[in-house]
Amino acid sequence: MSSSTPAVGRKLTWVTKFTYALLPLSFTMTTMVMTWQMIYYTQPLAISIGIVTTMLAVGKAIGGFITPIWGYISDRMYSTSFGRKVGRRKGTLLIAAPLNLIFYVLLWVPNMPVWYYLVINVIYYGVYPGINTVVYSLPSEMTDDSKDRAQLVAVQQIGGGVGGFALSMVNAYLFKIWGADGWQPYFKIAMIYAVLGTALLVIGALCIKERPYDETTDISSADKGNAEKVGFFGRLVSVFWNFLSVLRIKTFRNYLGIFLSQMTFRTVRGQINAYFIMFVLLLTPAEVSLSTGFSFLFGMVCVVIWATIITKLGGMRAYRIGSWFTIALFVGIYILALNVSSLPKATVTLVFTILITLFTLGNSGIVNAQTYVQSFVPDVDELVTGKRREGQYAGIQSTLEVIVNTVVTILVGVILQAVGFQSGADVKTQSATVVNVLLYMYCGTVVVLALVGILLTYRMHLNEKTHDILVAESARLRNGGSMADVTDETRKVVEDLAGIPYEQCWGHNNVINATHKG
Questions:
Q1: For residue 274, what are the contacts with CB-CB under 8 A and spacing of at least 6?
Q2: Is 423 exposed, middle or buried (0-12, 13-18, 19+ CB in 10 A)?
Q3: Nearest to residue 380, comparing CAs of 209, 254, 264?
Q4: What is the pTM for the complete model shown?
Q5: Could you tell me which residues come within 8 angstroms of residue 174 by beta carbon, excluding any fewer than 6 positions away?
Q6: Are residues 170 and 280 in the same domain?
Q7: Of 50, 140, 182, 468, whose CB has the highest number of CB atoms within 10 Å?
Q8: Is residue 278 assigned to a domain?
């Protein structure tokens, strides 16, 4: 039996929510990698930029496809005596944390051959998902209360934001003291984050609440079916099957469309942001960078605002508000871009800075609402499978983020090359076609995909009312209730959210086990 106190069915204390914030705060270790690793390898270590980018791309791609395996392991940790004693999420974190520390430190060892860095990066990006998969699954794992989940999502965003901001401030100070020449400053800074990040991770892990060991959290019986045990090959097939079979669930399909639409437009905007500033607005990134510090503080306020809105209006209505606000801002940016030649440079700088800072508000609403809704998808899955698989969905989402980032990066490069983008060219030598393509990609992609997301929210019928019905029905069946006693209203809600007949729910299907006939 897990020693963790189950939080399901009761309110979480603010102490619990605060300690949960330590987990995303520990992501400063990863932010250090994302921000400084390429500079460290190409400057002090003098490794070719082509080799470094290829090496990092391979590591991230492999990590992305290993992520569902960590979700699979985390969901099934209760099938081990260690998991039943410690907790399935806590147990996974306590296994992944020391591995993450070891290979994080090895990333920064100087003056090693290129093959060494390639191997360590692949292992590191394969180990790290064991942490973020669990962290992203916890809002759904820790409580069924919708207000608590909204607050956990907000805490998650604030913890990650504070960690990133603190890293940028502390690094600026440490580089000023130690300089930026040679490998030693980077190594020493990385070691500081190794110690602090791991300490935060372990403390946060020890304080989390999770669901107890019971019929719905022990998934081993569903994996085995009629077999005595599942072999290694069977496990690999099961990971692949579980990754794909979730598409059978209607609510997840609708959520997937919402997630991919917002993820894609945010990635496209981020990829070409500097190009848009330079070649369309005829500014330099430095001229609009003064808002960075203010945007961070504004962003933290936005997270609190949206957590309140979400608890009052629900996830889908909050998502629509954030999306319409974002659309209005990018229409404004489009109009500004069309009038760049007739406006003073100072005016363009001021207006764009205001609009892109306000985008923090719209973007925060979209991300918080999407993350909040994601925390309810495992509740639908439980009604379908009879099992709790928060890790499965966190793993799938992390993998999709890697895929979207990779595909968008490739497509942006292909499109810009096809229209004649000239690397190293100044603003005067880029063609009008390139400028127009950047304009329509930057503004058009956001507007079109935000509209797609808005339309999809009307197909998403998972709200507080239907969620309460769903949770109540799961609790009834978990406590031995008969499926034959379902009410007409509950049947209608379940079938609408699941997309399959009620009689095929509660494990009477092959969503988890491909060999199960229902």
A1: 285
A2: exposed
A3: 254
A4: 0.86
A5: 185, 188, 189, 192
A6: no
A7: 140
A8: yes
The span from the CA of 357 to the CA of 169, in Å, is 20
pLDDT at residue 1 in the model: 32
Question: Which helix (DSSP H) or strand (DSSP E) does residue 105 occupy?
Answer: helix 88-107
Question: What digits encode the pLDDT tens for the residues 392-447?
Answer: 998 898 888 888 887 887 888 889 889 988 866 666 678 899 999 999 999 999 99
Question: Which residue range(s) make up the domain with 431?
Answer: 242-517
Give me the sign of the Cα torsion angle 12, 387, 263, 237: positive
Q: Please indicate, yes or no, whether residues 295 and 340 belong to a single structural domain of this protein.
A: yes
What is the C-alpha to C-alpha distance for residues 63 and 70, in angstroms, rounded to an integer?
Answer: 10
Using DSSP, state whether 343 is helix, strand or coil: coil
Question: Can you give the pLDDT at residue 486?
Answer: 95
Domain count, the chain: 2
Q: Answer for the pair 370, 393: CB distance below 8 angstroms, yes or no.
A: no
Q: Would residue 114 be called left, alpha or beta, if left means φ above 0 and alpha means ψ between -120 and 50 degrees?
A: alpha
Whether residue 196 is found in the same domain as residue 247: no
Query: Do 492 and 449 share a structural domain?
Result: yes
Alpha carbons 353 and 321: distance in angstroms, whole number: 22
Among the candidates 191, 212, 233, a domain finishes at 212
Hey, what are 64's tokens?
């992305």
Q: Which residues contact 303 (CB under 8 A, 6 or more apart)?
A: 154, 157, 158, 161, 364, 368
The answer to whether the CB of 311 falls within 8 A of the CB of 147 is: yes
Among 194, 212, 230, residue at a domain's last position: 212
Model pLDDT, residue 219: 87
| Whether residue 357 sits in one domain with residue 255 | yes
Mean pLDDT over 358-369 rounds to 92
- The CATH code of the domain that includes 476 is 1.20.1250.20
User: Are the beta carbons of 352 and 333 closer than 8 angstroms?
Assistant: yes
Q: For residues 145 and 12, is the Cβ–Cβ distance under 8 A?
A: yes
Clarify whether residues 168 and 251 are in a common domain.
no
- Map tokens 């406006």 to a residue: 343
If asked whether residues 40 and 178 sit together in one domain, one would say yes
Which of 214-223, 244-253, 425-434 has the largest mean confidence?
A: 244-253
> What ranges make up the beta strands (E) of 427-511?
none
- Residues 208 and 276 both lie in one domain: no
Do the domain assignments include residue 173? yes
> pLDDT digit string (tens) for 342-357?
999 999 999 998 998 8
Sign for the CA dihedral angle at 450, 456, 458, 464 comes to negative
- Does the CA dihedral 102-105-109-114 come out positive or negative? positive
Nearest partner of 163 among 209, 206, 201, judged by Cα: 201
Per-residue model confidence (pLDDT) at position 152: 92
With CA atoms as reference, report the closest residue to 125 among 200, 197, 215, 59: 59
For residue 375, being part of any structural domain is answered with yes
Residue 219 domain-assigned (yes or no):
no
